[in-house]
Amino acid sequence: MGNKIIFGRYHNSNSWFHRLDPRTKLVGIFFLMIALFIVNNLWVLLGAFGAILLLILTTKTPILSFLRSLKGIAFILLFTVSFQIIFSRKGEMLWKGEFTLDLLRILIVVILLVLFIFSKRLLPKARMMQFLVIVIGFFLLQYFKVFDLDFGNFLTKNIATYKIKIYDGGLYTSLKIVLRVMSILFISSLLTLTTKPEEITLGIEKLLSPLAKLKVNVSTFAMMISIALRYIPTLIVQANKILRSQASRGVDFGEAKLSEKIKQIISLLVPMFVIAYNQAEDLANAMEARGYVPQNKRSSINVIKFKFIDGLILILIVGLLVTTITLKAIGYAI
Amino acid sequence: MGINFQDVSFAYYIPRNKKKTRYQLTDVNLKINAENEFIGIVGHTGSGKSTLVQLMNALNRPTLGSIEVLGIRVIRKSKTLLKPIRQNVGLVFQFPEYQLFEQTSLDDIMFGPKNFGFTKEEAKENALEAARIVGLNEELLEKNPFTLSGGEMRKVAISGILASKPKILIFDEPTVGLDPKTKTELMNLLVDLNKMGKTIIIVTHDMEVVSRYCNRVIVLEEGKIALDLPKEELFSKKELLDKYSLDYPVLMKLLQRIKDQYQVDIDVNKFTLEEAYLEIKKVLGKSHG
Predict the structure, then answer these.
(1) Contact in structure between A182 and A50 (CB atoms under 8 Å)
(2) How far are the Cα atoms of A69, B34, B35, B116 from residue B39, in angstroms, in the given order?
(3) Which of B13, B98, B115 is closest, CB to CB, to A274?
(4) What is the DSSP string of A155-176?
(5) Would you say the C-alpha torsion A15, A20, A23, A26 has a positive or negative sign?
(6) Distant-in-sequence, close-in-space partners of A210: CB < 8 Å, separation ≥ 6
(7) Which residues of chain B neighbour A273 with C-beta distances below 8 Å?
C-alpha cells in the first residue's frame, strides 16, 4: 500500500526516453522550463505544448498518469483562469452579461447551503464540487431566465446588479496560463514517470560532484536522499499501525476539541519518532556492519553513461533555449 | 451476545470497477461468545488473520455482510458509535510497546479509559487494577515508559488496554520477541484473564501456544475460514493438521513416536507436560506390571 504512494509514479517501460542519462533529463527539463517561462506568445506556447504531447507519445507512458498530475492543481488553475476571464479588461469585449441579486435568490442560496451542510452530515462523502456545480447551475439557469421569479414584492426587489464583461485579452492570458502550467507539469511528470528515484538521486549526485572540490560531501548527501526516499513507505505503514492501535484505545481521529486534537497528534507523533529513531539506529548499525564508511569512494549498482544521443539532445535543448532568449532580446513577440 | 459475523467479506481497497476487487477475507461466518472462550486464530502470513481481528473491534468495517459486536451492528457505511465496541473489544497489536507516548507509565495506562469517558479517578483506579493484574510494580508506574525493558513496556501497553475493562481481549502475536520466561508469564496472565470470565482471542503462528492454552482453534486459509473447531478435535485429526500444514506440538510428536515405536495404546492428545507425563507413566506402569 505504502509503495504506491511514492514509487507508483515511475512507469516501467523501455522507451528511448527511459534509457536517457538522468543527468540529461534533469538538465534538459530544467532548461525547457526556463524557456517556457520566457515564451509569452499563445501560438508558440501552443506549439510547445503540442511538441510535449508528441514527446510523451514516444515514451510509451500512459497519458492518464500525466492527467493525474493535474488533479492537485486543477482547482487553483480553474480559480485563476475564471478570475482572469472575469476581471481582465484587455483587448476587445466579446460578451456582456448581467446578473441581478435579490432577497429571494440570497434565500435560495442560504437554503442550498444549509441543505449541503446537512447532507454532508448525512452522506459522509458528499463532495464540495457537486455543491458548487449546483450553485453555479442555479445562477446560469436564472440568467437564462429558465425560471423567472418575479412576485413583484420585496422578495424579488433588485438589490444589486452584477455586470460581467469578457474581453479577448483575458481569454488569451488565461489560455496562456493553462498552457504554460500544463506544459511545465507534464515535463516534470515526464521526469518522474520515466526515471527511477534512485536514478534521479544518482543523477543529482553526479551533477553536484564538482562541489566535492569545495569540501561538500556529495555522496553522503545523495545517500541521505535515497535512504529518506526508501523509508517513506515504511514509515507510512508504521504510522497506519500506530493510528490503528491508538484508535483501539479510543482515540477518535477526526472530531474533537482543539485541546484533544493536540493530544491525539502527540499520541501519534511520539511513537513515530521512537520508531524512526530506532529504525535509523538499526540501519546505521547494519550499514556499519557491512563496512560502510561515509567518506569512502564507492561505485554504484546503477551505472549511468553519457551517450551520443544524450549529447545530441542537450545541444538541441541548449540551442532552443539560446534561440528563445536571443529572439526575445531582439524584440520578437515570442 | 458476543461477536457475530454474517457473510462478511472485506477488501482494503475497492477499485472503480468493483468486479476487480481483491478481497482479503471472503464469506466469513463466525460466532464468538463474550464469555469464557479462549480462541487461537492460526494461518499463514497473508491469510487474513490480522484483518479478521481488526474487523472484530470495528477498526475495519466489512465491505460486504454485517458484524454484530455485543449487540451493535456494524456494516460498511453505518453511522453507529464505534467507541463502545472499541472499549469492550480490546485489541492488543503486535509490538504494542510502540503505542506508548505519555510521560509516565500510569498516564499511558490511563489514556484509554479517559478516552472512553471514565472520570480521572475511575481511570486511575482502573489503571492501578490493570497494572496489578499484569504484575507491574508500583514504582514502575511513575517511570517514563521509554526507560523500561521490552517486556515491561509490553506489560504497560497491555494494561493500557485492560484498564478500559474490555469483555473480549484480542492479542495479535502476543509472544513475538519475548524471552521464554516473559512469554510464559504473559500466557499465564491470559489464562488468569480467561478465568476471570473474559474471552481471549490470540492470533499466532505458535502451535505450542495454541495446543497448550486455547480451547477453540480457527484456521484461516486465503481469506476463508478453513476450520473452526475445538482444540481436541483438531489435534486428533492428523489429516487436518497435514492438510493445512500446521505444526504438531512437541509433546504430541513425542507421544506419537512412543506410540509408533512401541505399539502401545497411548493417548497422544496431551497438551501439558504434566498430562503427558501421567500418560507415559500410566503406559509404563501397564507394561511393567
Answers:
(1) no
(2) 48, 12, 11, 26
(3) B98
(4) GG-EEEEEEEEEEHHHHHHHHH
(5) negative
(6) none
(7) none
- CB-based contact, B26 to chain A, within 8 Å: no
The DSSP bridge pattern shows strands B72-74 and B199-203 to be unpaired
pLDDT tens by residue, A169-225:
888 889 999 999 999 999 988 888 898 888 888 888 888 888 878 877 888 888 888
Please state the pTM of the whole predicted model.
Answer: 0.72
For chain A, give the number of residues: 334
Beta carbons of A102 and A154 less than 8 angstroms apart? no
**pLDDT score of A140:** 67
Query: End-to-end distance of chain B based on CA atoms, in angstroms?
Result: 53
* Residue written as grid cell 474471552: B199
**What are the DSSP E strand ranges found in chain B?**
2-10, 25-33, 38-43, 64-69, 72-74, 89-92, 168-172, 199-203, 216-221, 224-230
Would you give the end-to-end CA distance of chain A in angstroms? 46
Asked whether residue B191 is assigned to any structural domain, the reply reads: no
**Nearest-CA distance from B87 to chain A in Å?**
7
Q: Grid cell 467507541 — which residue?
A: B83
- Measured between alpha carbons, how far is A293 from A290 in angstroms, rounded to an integer? 9
Q: The sheet that has B216-221: what strands, in order across it?
A: B89-92, B168-172, B199-203, B38-43, B216-221, B224-230
Helix (H) or strand (E) holding A197: helix A197-208
Beta bridge partners of B31: B4
B115 near A CB under 8 A: yes
Least Cα distance to B162 among B188, B131, B187 occurs for B131
Lowest mean pLDDT among A238-242, A329-333, B44-48, B196-200: A329-333
Query: Closest to A250 (Cβ–Cβ): which among B12, B13, B116?
Result: B116
DSSP secondary structure code for residue B18 in this structure:
G
Give yes or no for a contact between B214 and B231, defined as CB atoms under 8 angstroms apart. yes
Which is nearest to B211 in space by CA: B244, B247, B170, B180?
A: B247
Please give the tally of structural domains in chain B: 1
Question: In the Cβ-directed half-sphere of A149, how many Cα atoms lie within 13 Å?
Answer: 19
Domain of residue B267 covers 248-289
User: Residue B31 — pLDDT band, cuts 50, 70, 90?
Assistant: very high
Q: Which of A21, A30, A237 is nearest to B98 (CA)?
A: A237
Q: Measured between alpha carbons, how far is A258 from A238 in angstroms, rounded to an integer?
A: 25
The β-bridge partners of B90 are B169
Kindly provide the b/e burial profile for residues A26-50, where b requires at least 16 CB atoms within 10 angstroms of the residue's own CB: bbbeebbbebbeebeeeebbeebbe
Cα gap B177→A315, rounded to integer Å:
59
Rounded Cα gap, residues A152 and A139, in angstroms: 20
Secondary structure (3-state) at A257: coil
Q: Rounded to whole angstroms, how far apart are CA atoms B91 and B89?
A: 6
User: Cα separation of A243 and B145, whole Å?
Assistant: 19
